[in-house]
């Protein structure tokens, strides 16, 4: 599960392994340029966006320069603070703000989707072209084997549904004992409590999860 970094909390910087840089981490999407363009178009300073998103000015600057690859949890905070959709920041291509209408739909074919990779998870945003939606479906391969691989645990204003497609997933929470989920198992929980995910065993867990904004 994408983590919230200590750097973003205005505390000590997180270790380099919690981030990735380059096209591999960004999945071919220039997130930094996209955020820089958005900030400049609104006439905002780094201090302004820091106050709006809760991400430190120094961390935001590094994200704009593509020196840090933010997790999905971090991008959700940025999207919420800037009042844009998460898929607008992470999906491939520039897309206009589509208006919601009855009967709309989006289809993601096998192997498709918008990729976003971190040091602990390989994520693919599904149906990323559909705008103005509260729920974001994501297919994730969890590469982390220990909570210690996360600089900090995730926490966001959202609810999460997770179903394990392959392997064994361990859901760690500050409220509950670690929860083991095997293929076909699912869980729905409040993401405002710190949590994180790890895989158990030699095979990476593959999960389909839905991030629901509150």
Summarize the entry for a quick read:
By secondary structure, this protein is α+β, with helices and mostly antiparallel strands. It has helices spanning 22-26, 31-41, 46-53, 57-64, 72-82, 86-90; strands spanning 114-117, 121-125, 135-142, 158-166, 168-173, 179-181, 186-190, 195-200, 205-213.
Descriptive notes:
The chain is α+β, with helices and mostly antiparallel strands and 214 residues long. It is globular, with a radius of gyration of 16 Å. The chain has six helices and nine strands, in the order ααααααβββββββββ. It has helices at 22-26, 31-41, 46-53, 57-64, 72-82, 86-90, and strands spanning 114-117, 121-125, 135-142, 158-166, 168-173, 179-181, 186-190, 195-200, 205-213. The two termini are 18 Å apart. A hairpin with a 3-residue loop joins strand 1 (114-117) and strand 2 (121-125). The longest helix is centred in the N-terminal third of the chain and has 11 residues, at 31-41. Helix 3 (46-53) crosses helix 4. Residues 2-27 and 94-98 have low confidence and may be disordered. The strands form two sheets. The chain has a six-stranded antiparallel sheet. It has a three-stranded antiparallel sheet with strand order 6-5-8, with no helix packed on it.
Which residues form runs of ≥5 with pLDDT under 50?
2-27, 94-98
What would you call the shape? globular
Radius of gyration: 16 Å
Helical percentage: 10-25%
Secondary-structure class: alpha+beta
Order of helices and strands: HHHHHHEEEEEEEEE
C-alpha termini separation = 18 Å
Beta strand %? 25-35%
Largest sheet, in brief, is: 6 strands, antiparallel
Q: Number of DSSP strands?
A: 9
Mean pLDDT: 81
Tally the helices. Answer: 6
């Amino acid at each position: 599960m994408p983590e919230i970094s200590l750097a973003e909390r205005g505390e000590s910087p997180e270790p380099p392994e919690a981030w990735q840089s380059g096209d591999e981490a960004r999945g071919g999407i220039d997130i930094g340029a996209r955020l820089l363009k958005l900030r400049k178009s609104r006439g905002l300073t780094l201090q302004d966006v820091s106050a709006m998103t809760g991400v430190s000015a120094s961390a935001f600057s590094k994200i704009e320069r593509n020196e840090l690859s933010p997790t999905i949890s971090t991008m959700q905070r940025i999207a919420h603070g800037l009042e844009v959709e998460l898929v607008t920041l992470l999906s491939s291509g520039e897309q206009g703000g589509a208006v919601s209408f009855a009967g709309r739909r989006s289809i993601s074919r096998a192997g498709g989707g918008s990729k976003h990779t971190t040091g602990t998870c390989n994520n693919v945003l599904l149906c990323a072209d559909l705008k103005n939606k509260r729920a974001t479906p994501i297919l994730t391969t969890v590469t982390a084997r220990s909570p210690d691989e996360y600089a900090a645990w995730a926490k966001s204003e959202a609810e999460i549904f997770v179903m394990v497609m392959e392997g064994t997933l361990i859901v760690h929470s500050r409220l509950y004992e670690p929860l083991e989920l095997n293929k076909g198992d699912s869980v729905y929980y409040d993401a405002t409590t710190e949590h994180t995910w790890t895989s158990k065993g030699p095979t990476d867990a593959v999960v389909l999860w839905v991030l629901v904004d509150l």
